[in-house]
Amino acid sequence: MIVRKIKPEELKRTGELFAIAFEYEIDNSKTAQEVFEEISSVPKSREDFYWKERWAAFEDDDKTMMSCFVAKPFPIQFDGNQCTMVGIGGVSTLPQYRRMGGIRACFNKALPDMYEQGAAFSYLHPFSTAYYRKFGYELCCERTRYQISLSDIRPFAAEGSCYLAEQGNLMVEDIKRIYKVWQNKYNMMVINENWEYAWALSSNPPKDQTFTYVYRDKTGEPKAFMSFKKEELGNELNIRCFRFFFTDPEGLKGLLNLLHSLESDHHYVYFDLPTDLEITPLLPEWSMGAGKREEVFWGMARAVNVEKVLRMAKYRGDGSLIMQIKDDFIPQNNGGFFVRFESGRAAEVHPVDQKADISLGINDFSRMIIGVCDVSDTLFMDSVRIDCDLEKISKVFYKKPVHLTEYF
Questions:
Q1: Each residue of 275-322: pLDDT tens digit?
Q2: Residue ranges of the alpha helices (H) in 159-313?
Q3: 293 and 309 both lie in a single domain
Q4: Dihedral angle at the C-alpha atoms of 67, 72, 78, 83, nearest 10 degrees?
Q5: Does 320 reside within a domain?
Q6: Mean pLDDT over residues 36-51, rounded?
Q7: What residues make up the domain containing 370?
Q8: 239 and 113 share a domain?
Q9: What is the Cα–Cα distance from 85 to 257, expressed in whole angstroms?
Q10: For the segment 225-284, what is each residue's pLDDT rounded down to a tens digit?
Q11: Dihedrals φ, ψ of 299, to 5°?
Q12: Exposed (0-12), middle (13-18) or buried (19+): which is 42, by Cβ within 10 Å?
């Protein structure tokens, strides 16, 4: 088996391989050269722009592609710092080559390469959590999914108005301004670039039946936006929001008021929120099918460069900790790391060969340093060994606001 990044003439085959593996139709009538020239000359997405960042496993002839995925970099926010996260997407293997180690071989090459390229984290959306834990990824972003009966929303006292984004009134700057509030608050949020706003520039609700509304208060300040499509369930029409952002309670109320106005034609609305936003007191009725909520997972993350992450992380007050990390894919992450911090920021970070306060694998380290859980959760982590008091560790590993909205 040969593993490497693809050549220009192999770009078309990666799309075909994905379509075959996941059984959906594509138009592959263009030649390999035409596909390459079209994508490379006028990239329409981040994935197009980073077309070179596709890893593939080949048979020994170095021509027959077996497996592939794309590893595209995103700028993200982590503890007040901008750093690089590599999003893994398009993971696919032709059926006849499954369970032959093609994807594992790609990760064997890709993860050390991410380290050398300066990435701090990697992220993916798994088909199987157990499968991707083998490569050091662990459940990361959790979100609260709401299902609310539109007829049970009571109008709120919000003096602003909602405006439909359409050609001639796209309101892209308003959308960017609202998104940035979440971007600056939550770990793992993508620092959006032009690629991520392409959808906003092409809003055409009469044609694509995707509706984006921006709420502005009475002074014209943008405070919320949402994008949604109708969803049919038997004879029932519902609303599925796939973007739902607000800067304060008034913004949320403005969006809910608009949703309530659609109750004559639609039954439920569905939207996801960060777990730290508690909106249940706003709604008077939750029984008898009026509403429900559930916690759902949204992908898996792994630290790519432990030392870099420790230098960026926020800590609680002053202190120090020695941790022993095990990483089967990135050798530089293996071993002991000493961190000393003052006023919540790292003052000293370096490898060390001393008895550790805590020993853990890259999976658990990643989940804990990002801030999905706190030190009390280590009681349920069989792979974590603690040799000091929990208060010392709690200055390093504690819950933080975490959220991610991108899917790749």
A1: 999 999 989 999 988 999 999 999 999 999 999 999 999 999 999 999
A2: 172-185, 198-201, 205-208, 249-260, 306-312
A3: no
A4: 130
A5: yes
A6: 94
A7: 305-394
A8: no
A9: 37
A10: 999 999 998 889 999 999 999 999 999 999 999 999 999 999 999 999 999 999 999 899
A11: 95, 175
A12: exposed
